[in-house]
Amino acid sequence: MSYQILSSRSHQVPQTWVSHRVPQTWVSHQVLQTWVSHQVPQTWVSHQVTQTWVSHQVTQTWVSHQVTQTWMSHQVPQTWVSHQVTQTWMSHQVPQTWVSHQVTQTWMSHQVPQTWVSHQVTQTWVSHQVTQTRVSHQVTQTWVSHQVTQTWMSHQVPQTWMSHQVPQTWVSHQVTQTWVSHRVTQKWMSHQVPQTWVSHQVTQTWVSHQLTQTWVSHRVTQTWVSHQVTQAWVSHQVTQTWAILLVSGLWE
To answer: Left (φ > 0), alpha (ψ -120 to 50) or beta: where does 182 sit?
Structure first.
């Protein structure tokens, strides 16, 4: 297995690439990101925000203000807690248990059979297709709870989700997503995880087959445009550029 570990530190920002894609550990203002799987396994902490990817696609554990997300299946099995909000995916597609202010959602079949209760509102999906608002091949759903909108429109889990101004949209085969939370925008548009993400002037954009990304945080720019991890990164006048297919890089 040919790869190169890149470590850089800029104002307490360690970055480490060790897998074929973008295994990385990155800390900036208590922000820890770690990639350890073939695609984007990551552990990330920012204001008590933890993200972990360990499956073939996007296995993740994420905590932000008591928000936990965990992907453990091939697609997007997840456990997520935010203000007593728990989401768990355990089947091949999106089996989930979710609680938010007495809101419970549970997916346990191959697609999205679900039981959901919110203010004495009960909804149960048990078919292989499951349709709440829209019907796609797998899980088309629109869900609103305290300004929380979720929409599934692609083969796996395309979703639009808004909670405290947090829109998420999945429209690609895996996890195409647009997500905004406190000016945080994430967009996945490629086969794996192309993303545009903005948080306090932080922009991330993935548009290649793996992780083409542009990311800005306090004048920090990261850009991935090659098949693996081509990146240009600027943080306080710090520029890093990765342009080789795997993880070899030019760093300025």
So the answer is: left
Contact assessment for residue 131 and residue 140, using Cβ atoms and an 8 Å cutoff: yes
Q: How far is CA 177 from the centre of its chain?
A: 8
Q: Kindly state the greatest CA–CA separation across the chain.
A: 58
Q: Could you tell me which of 141, 218, 140, 148 has the C-alpha nearest to residue 180?
A: 148
**Distances from the Cα of 118 to the Cαs of 103, 123, 144, in angstroms?**
4, 9, 10
Integer CA distances (angstroms), 202 to 45, 175, 180, in order: 15, 20, 11
Chain centroid to CA 140: how far?
19
Contact 227, 245 (CB under 8 A): yes
pLDDT digits (tens, 9 = 90+) for 138-179: 223 333 222 223 332 222 232 332 222 223 332 222 223 333
Sequence-ordered list of residues with C-beta below 8 angstroms from that of 166, at least 6 positions apart, any chain: 148, 179, 180, 181, 184
Distance (Å, whole) CA 203 – CA 22: 17
Q: What is the pLDDT of residues 186-236, one digit of tens each?
A: 333 222 333 333 222 223 333 322 333 333 232 223 333 322 333 333 222
Residue type, 224: W
DSSP string, 34-88: -B-SSS--B---SSS----B-SSS--B-B-SSS--B---SSS----B-SSS--B-
